[in-house]
């Protein structure tokens, strides 16, 4: 197990930078929201395209991300920095009179490299630290408390669904048995329990990879956040405005794909009712099918391998 001596905490290579900028199709005076600031890789690109009349609202539920945003953009009047979950998008924009006025809206889901690289955040089996995993440490329940509270059956379900872990039952049993003797408060201890519970190892993959991913998704209710924000995103943008979403998990992408498809088909009518296109009133236009990172980026940035981008435009 590596200790956290990394000097690269703070770096995050933005995925599909060029493709994201093409998809956002910015002009200087746009009103843009970057709902997942991270370390601002995408925001920096956005700002380089905005004029003095442009506006950028950045959101992140991680205090460290918000401090980074404040340090970089705190003095720039065009930038508004908000700490909170993006599921509060309508409230955030409503308070600023911006519902229906956003011209480009970006979501780059999942965790940032600084979150993974900092052992103190408890996201990674590669760095020992307190078993926390919360993106927002000011609210919610840490992973250590979450595994204590959850029933074994529910833990199995989470490991299977979010981690696609075939040894979910053995791992859940291992965790619950260990908890009878002592608390599990560090990432190293959890990683060791998971490794011990798994009979066969996947080559090139740490045995705890799937378990850590699944618990992280559950602790942060990552899929629930996406479900909540999808209709708010539609409401937020102006006619012709773009919504760009980058997923790293098939379940995230499924939610985005389904919502974009539904909204591009328009209102549902009974199958036997004669209807015209006019009556359907689709709310979104699909701008592309799923977009994946190009070969050059894949060689340079491992994270980009699982990234899937979808783009939709609000109908006029
Ligand atoms: C993949 S990183 C974004 C990286 C960013 N695009 C960049 O270039 O630096 C995801 C960020 O979104 C934040 N995040 C994830 N889910 C969130 C949510 N529901 N509400 C607000 N922020 C969230 C995380 O804290 C993390 O900082």
Keywords:
about 325 residues; alpha/beta; Rossmann fold; DNA polymerase, domain 1; seven-stranded mixed β-sheet; 7 strands; about 15% strand; disordered N terminus; binds S-adenosylmethionine
What does this entry look like structurally?
With 316 residues, the protein is an alpha/beta fold. The protein has 2 domains: 17-113 and 222-314, Rossmann fold (3-Layer(aba) Sandwich), CATH 3.40.50.150; 137-219, Orthogonal Bundle (DNA polymerase, domain 1), CATH 1.10.150. The chain contains 14 helices and 7 strands. It has helices spanning 17-24, 41-47, 63-73, 89-94, 113-117, 143-149, 152-163, 168-181, 187-197, 209-219, 222-236, 250-265, 277-280, 295-300, and strands at residues 31-34, 55-60, 79-83, 102-108, 237-247, 284-286, 308-314. The chain has a 7-stranded mixed beta sheet with strand order 3-2-1-4-5-7-6, sandwiched between helices. Helix 2 links the parallel strand 1 and strand 2 (55-60). Helix 11 packs parallel to helix 12 (250-265). The longest helix has 16 residues, at 250-265. The radius of gyration is 21 Å and the shape is globular. Bound molecules: S-adenosylmethionine (SAM). S-adenosylmethionine is lined by residues 12, 14, 36, 38-42, 59-62, 65, 85-87, 108, 110, 112, 135, 225.
Give a short overview.
It is built from 14 helices and seven strands. The protein has 316 residues and is an alpha/beta fold. It has two domains: 17-113 and 222-314, 3-Layer(aba) Sandwich (Rossmann fold); 137-219, DNA polymerase, domain 1, CATH 1.10.150.
Bound molecules: S-adenosylmethionine
The name CATH uses for the topology of the largest domain is: Rossmann fold
Question: Quaternary status of these chains?
Answer: single chain
Q: What is the CATH architecture assignment of the largest domain?
A: 3-Layer(aba) Sandwich
- List the domain count as a whole number: 2
- Gyration radius from CA atoms, angstroms: 21 Å
- CATH homologous superfamily (4th level) name of the largest domain: Vaccinia Virus protein VP39
**What global shape is seen?**
globular
Largest sheet: 7 strands, mixed
Helix content range: 40-55%
CATH hierarchy, class of the largest domain: Alpha Beta
What fraction of the residues are assigned to beta strands by DSSP? 5-15%
N-to-C SSE series? Answer: HEHEHEHEHHHHHHHEHHEHE
Distance between the termini: 54 Å
Number of alpha- plus pi-helical segments: 14
If strands are numbered along the chain, what order do they take across the biggest sheet? 3-2-1-4-5-7-6
User: In terms of per-residue confidence, which ranges show pLDDT below 50 for 5 or more consecutive residues?
Assistant: 1-8
Helix/strand structural class: alpha/beta
Kindly state the number of beta strands: 7
């Amino acid at each position: 197990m590596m200790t956290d001596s990394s000097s690269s905490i703070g770096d995050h290579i933005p995925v599909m930078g060029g493709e994201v900028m093409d998809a956002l199709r910015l002009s200087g005076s746009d009103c843009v929201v970057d709902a997942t600031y991270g370390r601002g890789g995408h925001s920096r690109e956005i700002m380089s395209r905005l004029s003095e009349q442009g506006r950028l609202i950045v959101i992140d539920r991680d205090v460290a991300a918000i401090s980074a945003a404040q340090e970089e953009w705190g003095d720039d009047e065009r930038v508004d920095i908000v700490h909170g979950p993006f599921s509060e998008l309508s409230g955030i924009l409503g308070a600023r009179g911006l519902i229906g006025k956003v011209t480009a809206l970006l979501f780059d889901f999942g965790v940032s490299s600084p979150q993974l690289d900092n052992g103190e955040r408890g996201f990674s089996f590669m760095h020992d630290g307190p078993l926390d995993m919360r993106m927002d440490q000011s609210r919610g329940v840490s992973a250590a408390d979450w595994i204590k509270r959850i029933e074994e059956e529910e833990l199995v379900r989470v490991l299977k669904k979010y981690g696609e872990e075939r040894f979910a039952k053995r791992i859940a049993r291992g965790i619950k048995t260990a908890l009878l003797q002592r608390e599990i408060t560090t990432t190293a201890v959890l990683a060791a329990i998971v490794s011990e519970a798994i009979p066969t190892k996947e080559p090139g993959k740490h045995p705890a990879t799937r378990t850590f991913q699944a618990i992280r998704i559950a602790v942060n209710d990552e899929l629930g956040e996406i479900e909540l924000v999808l209709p708010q995103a539609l409401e937020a943008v102006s006619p012709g405005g773009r919504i760009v979403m980058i997923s790293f998990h098939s379940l995230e992408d499924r939610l985005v794909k389904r919502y974009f498809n539904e909204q591009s088909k328009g209102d549902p009518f009974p199958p036997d009712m004669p209807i015209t296109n006019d009556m359907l009133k689709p709310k979104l236009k699909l701008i592309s099918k799923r977009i994946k990172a190009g070969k050059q980026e894949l060689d340079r940035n491992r994270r980009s391998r699982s990234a899937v981008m979808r783009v939709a435009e609000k109908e006029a």
